[in-house]
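Hi R.,

As promised on Friday, here is the backbone we talked about, encoded as structure tokens. Could you run it through your design pipeline when you get a chance and send me back a sequence?
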């Protein structure tokens, strides 16, 4: 089993019981976007895919809403949870640090400090433009008791925000092509 397959298996195990918008399907779609973007950006595709698969494993499994801050968020929790796993894959300390940095930064815009973190930001946020994930987001918000109008407004608001914060041209292009609600 290669490092990507091991990472997917580890992510699947860690993501059991999380909300439908952050489960393994979200991680896999994020990884697919990361693969596409990393190739266009001449980045290390393997590291970008591993990062995308593992980025949400620190999610709150109680599904209780918690206001996240730059200092305390599920990205930081995820990064802390994966260090030993990444080293067990045979990644170097430098590679582990870049992945953990990217994952710890993925919850907030404008704090991405390396190429992997910028690709993860874009890949993760492109889920909002994915037809596959739209139903999961709708279900997530319906389960919270939101009306259809509020959900539509939330999707529109998030898409507009993410579109403005993408780092890569390929993410902007995909978002433009899929901006309809």
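Update: got your reply. Pasting your designed sequence below so it's all in one thread:
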């Amino acid at each position: 089993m290669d490092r990507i397959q091991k990472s997917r298996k580890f992510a699947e195990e860690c993501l059991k019981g999380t909300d439908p918008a952050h489960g393994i399907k979200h991680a896999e779609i994020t990884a697919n976007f990361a693969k596409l973007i990393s190739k266009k950006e001449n980045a290390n595709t393997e590291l970008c895919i591993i990062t995308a698969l593992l980025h949400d494993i620190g999610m709150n499994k109680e599904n209780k809403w918690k206001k996240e801050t730059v200092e305390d968020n599920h990205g930081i929790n995820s990064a802390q949870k994966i260090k030993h796993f990444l080293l067990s894959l045979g990644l170097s300390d430098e590679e582990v640090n870049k992945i953990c940095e990217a994952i710890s930064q993925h919850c907030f815009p404008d704090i991405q400090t390396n190429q992997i973190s910028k690709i993860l930001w874009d890949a993760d946020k492109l889920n909002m433009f994915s037809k596959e994930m739209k139903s999961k987001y709708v279900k997530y918000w319906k389960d919270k008791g939101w009306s259809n109008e509020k959900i539509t407004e939330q999707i529109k608001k998030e898409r507009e925000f993410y579109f403005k914060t993408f780092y890569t041209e390929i993410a902007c292009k995909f978002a433009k092509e899929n901006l309809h609600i």
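One thing I noticed while checking it: The chain has one domain: 3-177.

Thanks again,
M.
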